[in-house]
Amino acid sequence: MAHVEDRWYKTVARPDGKSERVKTSLHGKGLRYRVRYIAPDGRERSKSFPDREKRAAEAFLVSVESDKLRGTYIDPAAGKLTFRQYAEQWLAAQTFDESTREATERRLRRHIIPYLGGRALAAILPTHLRELDRALQQLGLAVTYRVVAYSNVATILNAAVDDGRIPRNPCHAKTVRPPKVPPRKVVPWSGEQVLAIRCGLPDRYRVAVDLGAGCGLRQGEVLALAVEDIDFLKGTLHVVRQLKIVGSRLVYALPKGRKTRDIPLPSSVGAALTHHLEDFPPVPVSLPWEVPGGPAVTVNLVVHGRTNVAMDRHTFNRDYWHTALSTAGIQHSRATGMHALRHFYASVLLDTGESVKALSEYLGHADPGFTLRTYTHLMPTSEDRTRRAVDKVFAPSSDGLATA
Questions:
Q1: Among 175, 130, 178, CA closest to 152
Q2: Domain residue limits, the chain
Q3: The sheet that has 236-239: what strands, in order across it?
Q4: Which tens digits make up the pLDDT trace of 268-307?
Q5: Helix, strand or coil for residue 228?
Q6: What CA–CA distances, in Å, run from 199 to 17, 100, 205?
Q7: Which sequence ranges are marked TM in the entry (predicted)?
Q8: CATH superfamily placement of domain 79-172
Q9: What DSSP character marks residue 381?
Q10: What's domain 191-349's architecture?
Q11: What is the pLDDT of residues 357-395, one digit of tens each?
């Protein structure tokens, strides 16, 4: 039976049948009151309180019994596990792809565990999270990196709540403000800039611009495109894999979000591909699937190195892309990677009236809402649509509006 035990006094029976309180051998030593109760797992638990804190002990006992009835009881010992220990368990149980696992492990090891790793889960307070983000900011880390790091911490602590380790996630405290990427509107390159970059690349790699700007492929998808993925007769590209770096090794993997898709192949891009394949025939390249040591997959790559090997993104960017940017008079930055070709592709489609839903499918976005939020400023305004609609109905005449 749950109760509050007074360790300094005990009740004894006298010879006359009455009882009296007498000091125990522990009188004046250690904490006086000990709450003893049975946890939901059937084991006895206890918590001690100092002298003059009997009311606090009784309140704790009432709280424990209430939590047990509500099913919200948290074992105080569960929160003693350190953040490092729990984060390692959490990471080992995740099912995301290996490149994501590698990036998450590196982020935890470099910047999160050094600060939170030694703290018990139950001891992590909102102030620690505020201080963590401030520390990352002072290291000069990009806000995008801080956003992902904070998301990792919040996700781990959410899991700790679900596992009954802690009662609540301190990331959700009102005083904790997660880092946010300042709103930035995408400014697409002009057609002239895209063509200038294309001209700045060696002939064997110009098709990368055609695929990025003309079909909206990601860089990894461009570098993993195989000739068997191209249906020239139907005018369709099958995007079924990407080239990734996992553990410093090149591997084939499903596209981002593990989502394959079909993309319309414009005749101009089809002609460029045909010309490219005539000058630089595809070569069979075998790589592991998903992880180093995975089953080998062989495809006939459209884009490949001079020695008939797969072209990794680091080599492509360093040796060719950055040079092409300079040739086009564009400064190298995070915003001017090959991903900018996808922005150009989106701007062209939206300008011609393509729907956001279709664009989202062609880009391989998981949610059309993300596509809309990213490119809404590139869409014709409602005022423009209104003007065009009215002008289409009312043809101008010398007298003003035409009459029916």
A1: 178
A2: 3-73, 79-172, 191-349
A3: 230-231, 236-239, 261-264
A4: 999 999 999 999 999 999 999 999 989 999 999 999 988 8
A5: helix
A6: 107, 34, 10
A7: none
A8: Tyrosine recombinase, N-terminal domain (1.10.150.130)
A9: P
A10: Orthogonal Bundle (1.10)
A11: 999 999 999 889 988 888 888 876 655 656 666 666 665
